[in-house]
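Hi F.,

I've been meaning to write this up properly since the lab meeting, where we talked about keeping a consistent format for the predictions we share between groups. The idea is simple: the sequence comes first, exactly as it goes in, then the structure tokens exactly as they come out, then a line or two of notes. No screenshots and no reformatting. I'm using this chain as the first example so we have something concrete to point to.
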Amino acid sequence: MGPSELPLDGHYDIGFLLVPGFSQLAFSSALEPLRMANHLTDSRLYSWHLLSRDGAPVRASSGLATGVDAAMQQAPRLDLLLVCAGVEVQHHCDRGTLQWLRRLAGRGIPLGAVCTGGYVLAQAGLLDGYRCTLHWEHISSLHEALQFPRVTFCSQLFVLDRDRYTCSGGIAPLDMMLTLITRQQGLALAEAIAEEFIHERIRGVDDRQRNPLRVRLGHSHPKLEEVATLMEANLQEPLSLDELASHADLSRRQLERLFQRYVDCPPLKYYMDLRLMRARLLLRQTHMPVTDVALACGFVSPPHFTKSYRDRFGHSPSQERQRRREREAQAQADAVLASASRADQP
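Output, unedited:
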């Protein structure tokens, strides 16, 4: 069933598989447009079913526990299943969940994901040969770690590719669901929902996830955005200030003045910060050796990388990696305690 198709009875049933650590904001942004569609039309266009692996409540990244309707194995008939994930998603790709998702795909049920839920679908092999997206923080990490070579990751807010619907995090699921509603119910209803949510523009499949410099400036400055985009595309082999200026058809002095005026820092400092932020993501989200992380972010000298990292974040790359191991160990211990607590309940 494609994104514009409805079942014969005109009623669309969507399942939300909540993965521990899921983003409450992304989940709500996907669910609320369905509720509002029913409210504005005074009809039951959409139904939703909250699912978890074992039927127990699921704790979001905020720490809030959300009750569900059923365990995934007891899910009712679905027209679409969305995997909702968030932090530490790599620890929740257990065999039972992946097998269940494969069975749904085998029955021809469309599958989708919000925030990092695409990682679960990719682990199940259900995005091979598809275009998809997930939160921008994780896309670069997957590329560097060479994971999922048969999956094409895109930087769009959301991607609708045949029977796979994937979306980044934050409020981007709102736009994906409004697009789905537009294709199924018409633009008028989608625009009415957007108006109710004070969402001034329904972003489409061609909109990209982020432009950090535009967010920081509060407005668009074409030359600065051009240089910032060039910097982000060349983190492993950084360009010189003269090369950056030449690409933007600026003099070196003009470029320095633009950054000082609008960003309040020299361009090379901004460039260094991009590289270090990328390094922190790789240290937190991959198992790449620290030396490989340094090379991937344009540092040919490990001591220079360590000093720059410590100056920026107050601790070394090795300490960052150790903090990650401690968080993972704590998360696993919490999961064991939660499982034991459920087992003790009558």
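Notes:
The first helix runs from residue 24 to 41.
DSSP finds 14 helices and eleven strands in the chain.

If this format works for you, I'll send the rest the same way.

G.
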